Every structure is written in C-alpha cells, then in structure tokens.
Amino acid sequence: MRRKTVAIPFTSLNEGRVSFHFDWHPESTGMSQIAEIPEPLNVDARVTVLEDGYLVRVFLSGKVGLVCCRCGGGFLAAVSGEVDTFHTTDRTQLDGEEDGEVRLIDPRQEALDITPDAVDILVLSVSAKPLCSEDCKGLCPHCGTDLNKESCACSREQTDPRWDALKQITFDE
User: Which of 19, 34, 50, 139 has the least CB density, counted as fewest CB within 10 Å?
Assistant: First the structure.
C-alpha cells in the first residue's frame, strides 16, 4: 500500500515518548515540477505526549531525482533533515496564527498528521539550483553540447561587439 500521508493514530500515543517509522510515497507535495521521487522516503517520528499537546520530532531521508541546472542531465540526490513541531488543540498556543513550529489539531481528527512536517523537510532539503556535481561544466552556450561528455569546436572567448570601441582607448602613464 502506498502511504500518501504520514499520520499517527491518537490511540497509538500513550504517556511519554513514542517512536514511529513510515515508508512515505509523497504524491501531492508540490514538488513534481522539480523532483521525481523514485522510491519511498524514510520518515521517522518521535512523539512526546505532553499535557497540552504533542512535541514531534520528524526525521526524513531518501533519494530524489533532480535535473541539473547547468547541463540538464538527470541525477539522484540524497535528501535528509529534521524538524521539531508542537501539535495542540489549544488555540491560545498559536500566538495569533498557525506557523511551522506550532500546528493546530482539529479535535475531530483521529490521527496526528505529520505530513506537513515531512513536506517541509523535503522542500527545504532540495537545492534551489541542483547540480549533478560541483564541477559540472554545463552546456556550450553556442551549440548546446554537454561539456561534461564531450568538447566542442566553439570559441570560448566571448566578446560583445558593442565594447570593441573601448579596446582602441590607450592611457598615458
């Protein structure tokens, strides 16, 4: 069964600290435009039951398929991270509005949904400018050859003809 959400039934939450592990298949994270998730991500959660809510630490790890921003090639990248949040039914804990550190639980819920925490980790662990390698050479701007795989015959010197007149200026020392 593909787990689309990461939720812990309240009946599983006893006094103290409880740990959980999930294999998560995220489908609606909003990341489909920039990342492919070829295999389930590992989500581990530690929930501490408190008098007024649940302190949750979520760990996420796995691999995502990305497209290099220099050469356009696909590659797998490791993602990992953790986040701490406090989940409560007490609106006074929100300090005006729900944010990433405090989440409001709907009293009608039957489970503690930590999917938003896992999504936060996933989104923040993917680089805004993913590179297949730090020394990626990218594509030739003239012919489009992938310079990581082969070289091309294009001239590497780039000059803008509008600046040619400045080359004629000489300075007296």
Answer: 19
